[in-house]
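## tool: complex_structure
## caller: assistant
## args:
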Amino acid sequence: MRADYRPIRIGLLGAGSVGSQVFKLIQEDADELANRIGAQLQISGVLVRSLDASRDYSIPKEFLTTDAESVILGSDIVVELIGGIQPALDYVRMALESGSDVVTANKALLANHGPEIFELAERVGAQVYYEASVAGAIPIIRPLRESLAGDTVTRIMGIVNGTTNFILDQMESTGASFDAALEQAQQLGYAEADPTADVGGFDAAAKAAILSSLAFHTEVHIDDVYTEGIEKITQLDIESAKDAGYTVKLLAVCERVDDDSIAARVHPTLIPQTHPLASVRGAFNAVFVESEASGELMFYGAGAGGIETASAVLGDVVMAAKRHLGGGSTLNESTHAKLSILPIEDIVTRYQVSLEVKDEPGVLAVIASMFAELEISVETLEQSTIDSESETVLLTVITHETSERSLQKLIEKLNQSEVVAEFKGQVRVEGV
Amino acid sequence: MRADYRPIRIGLLGAGSVGSQVFKLIQEDADELANRIGAQLQISGVLVRSLDASRDYSIPKEFLTTDAESVILGSDIVVELIGGIQPALDYVRMALESGSDVVTANKALLANHGPEIFELAERVGAQVYYEASVAGAIPIIRPLRESLAGDTVTRIMGIVNGTTNFILDQMESTGASFDAALEQAQQLGYAEADPTADVGGFDAAAKAAILSSLAFHTEVHIDDVYTEGIEKITQLDIESAKDAGYTVKLLAVCERVDDDSIAARVHPTLIPQTHPLASVRGAFNAVFVESEASGELMFYGAGAGGIETASAVLGDVVMAAKRHLGGGSTLNESTHAKLSILPIEDIVTRYQVSLEVKDEPGVLAVIASMFAELEISVETLEQSTIDSESETVLLTVITHETSERSLQKLIEKLNQSEVVAEFKGQVRVEGV
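## result:
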């Protein structure tokens, strides 16, 4: 530690599960952090909504304040951990305008207002660090931005929401229904009372927007991400997938489609059981990255949790502190590529399609001709009996690549067909 | 791209499989790299041993030179890809002393001379980037140094040598002997004609030294790393491991033992089949990191290969170029922790021990009492018949934690015992 530097003042906005852990780590590891940085870190204040709320870690009263401006303007580095869009956006703006670097874990803020925040930061010469905004403790922002800075990312497939991975994993391993698995996730604290943000795919969509922007040097807003949740996934989907050698995961898929366009989408997805992502169980996260030169990389770890996320925040705080002493800047968020973002209709992928059809001679030929008319090639077709009494059988078809547009036409046809008793649903297939 | 900056001059030392790919990527992606950096990269020269040698990628003659000094002194950033210790060390010194930042993929150089190189860099205000020195394309140096800068790493277990992982994987999946699997690796180009550096564990040991130094802020020289190769691994070891639910991998294990000491070792290791490292097949690499706050992380990808390693080198070149424009520095290699490095005798771990014993009543009791005398607890003991004619049986014991010192005493006892026909060997067990 060089005693000739004055302490670097850290302003914490928020004292929830992540904020209180960041506070604790900075206090407990003060000497070690000072050694690594070359100056002491000093917490200049902790912004809370109420001075009396109970917290995981008892932050001494003298640090707490409800006065945002005093914390922000009295700090060299502002750590925003309150989440949501407002007042976080105003606070981040105020911090940057006052010349502070900002560390944030706020995915919603970045997925909605990333471009204006990065533009403001560049204008005032400040830096925004956000490793904790995607996949908790897993280093993914820095590797994408810096380690792959000389490479061309072609595809990212991420399990970036622990709640949905836990639910799907439970459904697969115990045979539970979606509702039962969700209830268990809620009991264990993996899912919130209102689980919409997680199970509806919106949390993952925010992360997909952040990852695509970074990987493809293009502005991607959360609204640009096609989003489908896991609510409609049934045991039938999971069992058919299993029989065909697949497992069902909620994936954020960010892909370079051609030289001029990309796509970003979040939906339940079949991936082969042999794919590295298939072995990501429980509430863990993993991000699988394909690049032209480096090939396939995977980053795996805890995707959430107060202390795990605090590690990512603190890594950013240390780098920001180092920059506070030594200057310089990392690569800026660049949007020079300005690639167009394809709508879901133009996406080409493979599908698992399930339907119940009449158990009569010639039915298969009718179904096959409907696929053929739309030029959708069938890779595998599994027919299975529902029960010995039933006049219908179950068909599970896995297609070769086709566009969403063609698939929607197929679904319309199947729904109108006399031989189809019930169209059961479709799930996209990736990673083959 | 900002046209107001003059191009940043990149000097390449070496035009082998990595160097020629770096050259190619810089030329082909010139505009995109310029957009990301804010200035053009310009290759100022490529140092080769002979102007006439054939190369993977045809570098135009006008770039090639055998004059090291002209390349080094005529560059802003020097990329050292010649490998080995000399003349690489002299070239890196010359580059740093002339004020250039250095990018290197040279693990031997860093594992032997890291401290003096980092000290020189700090003294002259230069930076050394070495992402490509460990695990090829996998980002591991930057995540350890920066993303985990606020965390305390407790343990790293890495599959950091693709050759040995390929050989062990072949032995397990096809039942091949070590010699047969090695021959196959050589035919496929995964192993060199003289495979000693890989199969003897020395390549992995260099990487273990680099990872431990970084993770524990302590000087760790390659000679500090206990090193054991895979030459003695037999089908018996692999089958016994498989039966007990384990798989055999050559691991680099870097661990914090207590507040004052660490250990670094490379040896064949049993890990549970359910451990994330167990599914790393073929020539892939993966690094598993345990930290106090972030928990378990894993980084997975191609550990070698010209173009994959070139991606890591180019990421470093882009970051060095950015620093050339904007100044600043990343965290320096710090050795402030000065932890002591334990010799192998003091390491405590678990072991699989295999021995052939007489098939007589009371023999098990004799063996069990030898373990008990040394206070080595037995977790599992498997007895298996060699063949119906044999007067001996095979015993496979997995122990609880014990010190290497105690284990060596046990082996001595077993070797002297009348009931032991043959002591077959021991393999350490981790990741339980």
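## assistant note: The mean pLDDT of chain B is 94. The first strand of chain B starts at residue 8 and ends at 13. Handing back to user.
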